[in-house]
Design a protein that fits this description.
This protein has a domain of 39 residues. The protein has five helices and no strands. By secondary structure, it is mainly alpha-helical. It is 44% helix and 0% strand.
Length: 108
């Protein structure tokens, strides 16, 4: 790699870039919307955001692949019977409603 000469060849970038603009980019001010713009800041969006639903929660559970395959097969059977809205969570909810705790094996 050749060394750069001090004959002014490296000054081209300094002539093209405005020092204030470079400083604005480096401080992040360059990317902020001016106050008179129609854009909202994150805090303003949070205040105006709709309330999250409280009647359900998204959760994550672990299941064996064999159990998932069985669950998916049951969902497909329900769909072929015309229950088009059948899905994993709906089937689990139905199973919970029908669960008899006295029939649950002790060793689960």
């Amino acid at each position: 790699m050749a060394a750069r000469d001090d004959d002014g060849a490296g000054l081209g970038a300094a002539r093209v870039l405005d020092g204030d603009e470079v400083q604005g980019v480096l401080t992040g001010a360059f990317y902020q919307a001016p106050p008179e713009s129609g854009r909202m800041l994150k805090a303003e969006r949070d205040v105006n955001a709709k309330a999250k639903p409280t009647h359900y929660k998204v959760i994550c559970i672990s299941m064996y692949t064999k159990d998932l395959e069985q669950l998916d097969e049951l969902v497909e059977k329900l769909k072929t019977r015309g229950i088009t809205k059948a899905n994993r969570s709906a089937l689990i909810r139905v199973a919970l409603e029908q669960l008899d705790l006295d029939k649950v094996p002790r060793g689960m």
